[in-house]
Amino acid sequence: MPKRSLASWLRTLEHQHPIEIDLGTERVAEVWAKMQRLLHGSADTQVNPDKTLTISVAGTNGKGSCVASMEAMLLAHGYSVGAFTSPHFLAYNERIRIAGQSVCDEVLVDAFEQISLSSGSITLTYFEYGTLAALWIFARAQLDVRLLEVGLGGRLDAVNIVDADVAVVTNIALDHQEWLGDTVEQIAIEKLAIARPQKPLIWGDRGTLEPLQASIIATGARIYAVGRDFYAESTNGQATLFYQSFETPMTLTAIDERGLLIDNKATAVQALLAAGLRLEDDLCRQALNEVTLTGRYQQLTYRGVRVVLDVAHNPAAAAQLASRLSQSRGRQLAIASVLKDKDWDGIVGALSSAVDRWYIAEINTSSRAADAHELLQVMYNRDLSGRSYESISTAFFAAIADAAEGDNVVVLGSFHTVACVLNIILAGEPVD
Fold first, then answer.
1. Which residues of 135-166 are buried (b: 16+ CB within 10 A; e: fewer)?
2. Which tens digits make up the pLDDT trace of 366-399?
3. d(CA 58, CA 169)
4. Confidence (pLDDT) at 254
5. Which listed site, 7, 154, 179, 351, has its alpha carbon 20 to 30 Å from 165?
6. What is the pLDDT of residue 47?
């Protein structure tokens, strides 16, 4: 009997579990225990028999950038590395990478089949299936390092069934309050749960170290904090990174500030150092200066117009995007849409002084999309210039047509929004 296709599996996974987001580790841990018995003859969900170094990364913003930076440096040093991230832009395979390359359909299908056999009557969410697939694929590959990006929160996220050798928290801000809590402290406690006592915890958020200090210390982890144990100093678009919590302090010079945010790069270096990995300055510098990540202040050109793709989908990320856009010349024409659980008013407020004209459309690829007319009403209430379009692609083409020399077309608000435009740029045709 021929194997099912990856597309068929993904259609099944989207509807297999009655709740799209069902936080909790009991079900997924039980299935992983069964899978581990097949791999290693052990039922302990916290055991990592293959000795793969595990670095787990949580945070409101910056998780993907930190993982990409670590992956680039590890590959530059010749380590075998796997990375699990989410969501994806163009293909599901992007979520699981080995040696910097997305795994093939066949490998994913084999993993899904094994998960199905091990799960029995236990139903799993789309994300839980992906997490188990990554763990299975990485275990069979016998890697040196696996990088695991937390999907939502930390304490109840599927990734947290694995004990991290190093835990990283990149940033804390209000987002996903329905699941994580209504205050920064509540959200931090959820994310800090990926830390383990006596193991390194890398804290990459400058603004919250002092107010959240009690919660951070309560983890019992060995803490390395940005701005205290490691920090960056910038001069003329380049940064010097300083690491002083070791017997031999490390300094990395001439790190380019373009592309991924410098604090995320600095946090990535600290995580690898805390893991006990020996790093060479030149290899780190080259990797950090060349690393890019889809949809994170990604700059492309379409029909002669500069296009900036950024998945900023909460006020904190929008504020960071606004700061970067303020350094650009010309008008900023923004194509934007969000899912309905997002703080659209906060996003618009953070970008109101940076964006000259808004092009709003409803996301047609998600049932959780916010209504375009409601999005536009928020802008009118703020006395901002904007117009609603029938689709993201229509809005994008309108902005491209309106752009004059020196203008930027900025695409933001969601992975769905960015993915649509990225498809247009790469394939030359709309997808929504």
1. bbbbbebebebbbbbbbbbbbbbbbbbbebbb
2. 888 999 989 999 988 999 988 999 999 999 999 9
3. 5
4. 94
5. 179
6. 44
Q: How far apart are CA 298 and CA 396, in angstroms?
A: 16
**What is the homologous superfamily of the domain 6-227+253-290 according to CATH?**
Mur-like, catalytic domain (3.40.1190.10)
Domain spans, the chain? 6-227+253-290, 298-427
DSSP-derived 3-state class of residue 140: helix
Look at residues 309, 302, 224 and name the one whose alpha carbon lies nearest to residue 267: 224
Provide the β-strand partners of residue 102: 97
Say which residues have a Cβ less than 8 Å from residue 249's Cβ, sequence separation at least 6: 242, 243
Give the H/E segment covering residue 5: none
Nearest to 339 by CA among 294, 372, 380: 372
> Binning pLDDT at 50, 70 and 90, where does residue 185 land?
confident
Cβ pair 271, 166 in contact under 8 A: yes
The mean predicted confidence, pLDDT, of the chain is 90
| Overall fold of domain 298-427 | Protein-Tyrosine Phosphatase; Chain A (3.90.190)
Residue with the larger pLDDT of the pair 31 and 39? 31
User: For residue 193, what are its two tokens?
Assistant: 């749960």
Query: Which residue in the block uniquely carries the two structure tokens 């805390």?
Result: 274
